[in-house]
Amino acid sequence: MEINLVSDTVTKPTLEMLQHMFNAKVGDDVYKQDPTVQKLQEKVADLFGMEDALFFPSGTMANQTAIKLHTQPGEQLIADKWAHVYNYEGGGVSFNSGVSCQLLDGNRGMITAEQVAGAINDPEFYHSPLTSLVCVENTTNKGGGACYELEDLAKIRTVCKANNLKFHLDGARIWNALVAKNQSPKHFGQLFDTISVCLSKGLGAPIGSLLISDKETIHRALRVRKILGGGMRQVGYLAAAGIYALDNHIDRLKDDHRRAKELGLALSQLPWVAKVEPIETNILIFEVHASVDATIVIEKLKQRGIFISSMGNGKLRMVTHLDYKEVMHNYVLETLQRKQ
Q1: pLDDT (tens digit, 9 = 90+) per residue, 92-111?
Q2: What is the 3-state secondary structure (H, E, C) of 250-268?
Q3: Are 257 and 176 in contact (CB under 8 A)?
Q4: How far apart are alpha carbons 214 and 6 in whole angstroms?
Q5: CA dist list (Å): 331 to 3, 66, 318, 336
Q6: Section 112-117 average pLDDT
Q7: Which DSSP helix (H) or strand (E) runs through 64?
Q8: β-bridge mates for residue 315, sequence order
Q9: How far apart are CA 70 and CA 168, in angstroms?
Q10: Side-chain-facing half-sphere of 246: CA atoms under 13 Å
């Protein structure tokens, strides 16, 4: 038995999802003639109470499109130092948009309104880049799946409005946050100018993200997506997977969260574990003692069919997901206990 806890991106479509994909009605989406992708876009826009949405092959492309829409070359965006748009999108902020990043030292990947206000460059001081955009990530990847409170996001929104800044949400794992915090997606739609959401992580679809905004912004996003090479043809087969995931895989995320917390509790009782980060959703980050070689821990677990990832500096990560079943979970718990 192979148990992959490296990421929630490793999931494969369920049989039911595959059947839904097989039966999808499709057309040429470059010509806006694919009925299933149109249905998905309308469904997601409605979920967040926003006007329109656009399907993308990846969350990175959706984020990069949003940044391109909200900035001009030479300007600057504000984000946490652990932000995905800065660390894991290949330098696209600078390559695609010619924009620099003002990075903040947040708490587990989350920043505050006060930090944002203090990082905005004086728009009259032309020696510094013009601040034009704030990007936040919810849940935070490197922050161990931490979730923002709506009140804190609303405070950042107020700062953005007062300073004529756009506000973008990298919501790759927003579904996890919604379940963990019992929040409504429409509340997020009221706060942000653009939101990217991912279907291929917790929801288990094979491919796909969407960018959500007002109709005028999504109309402009269509051109940027084309420039980046994101126009696809019979994409309805993928959109069908997303529709199925939205209808069937959101509520079950609480099982992923429960299992992550149970793993964290087991790890916290092991003598070779120095620290377990707080666990809110499906990402678990823990740190081994300085005397312990993290690569050996990874290798020993691998020998038992359990795959996890390293974050460097003695930090290791496990991510629970749709394909991590209860029988696997029990096996991992038993294996960790045996390592004492």
Answers
A1: 999 999 999 999 999 999 99
A2: CCCHHHHHHHHHHHHHHHH
A3: yes
A4: 35
A5: 9, 42, 15, 9
A6: 98
A7: helix 59-70
A8: 287, 312
A9: 9
A10: 24
Decide: 168 and 189 in contact? Cβ < 8 Å: no
**Model confidence over 259-304: pLDDT tens digits?**
999 999 999 999 999 999 999 999 999 999 999 999 999 999 999 9
- Asked whether the beta carbons of 241 and 206 are under 8 A apart, the reply is yes
286/318 Cα distance (integer angstroms): 9
Q: Give the CA distances from residue 224 to residues 56, 59, 240, 310, 339, in Å, rounded to whole numbers and listed in that order.
A: 11, 14, 24, 35, 51
27, 85, 141, 169, 220 from 97: Cα distances, Å: 32, 12, 23, 17, 15
Q: Cβ contacts of residue 166 below 8 Å, gap of 6+?
A: 70, 71, 132, 133, 134, 160, 193, 194
The confidence score (pLDDT) of residue 112 equals 98
Distances (CA, A) of 206 to 12, 160, 179, 202: 6, 35, 21, 11
Query: In terms of DSSP bridges, do strands 283-288 and 306-307 run parallel, antiparallel, or are they unpaired?
Result: unpaired
Residue 245: phi and psi, rounded to 5, are -65, -45
Q: Which two three-digit tokens encode residue 149?
A: 């409170």
CA-based nearest residue to 194, from 96, 24, 64, 330:
64
For residue 189, give the nearest of 163, 230, 217, 162 by alpha carbon. Answer: 217
Measure CA 276 to chain center: 21
State residue 1's pLDDT score.
82
141: confidence class by pLDDT, cuts 50, 70, 90:
very high
DSSP state letters, 1-22: --EE-S-TT-----HHHHHHHH
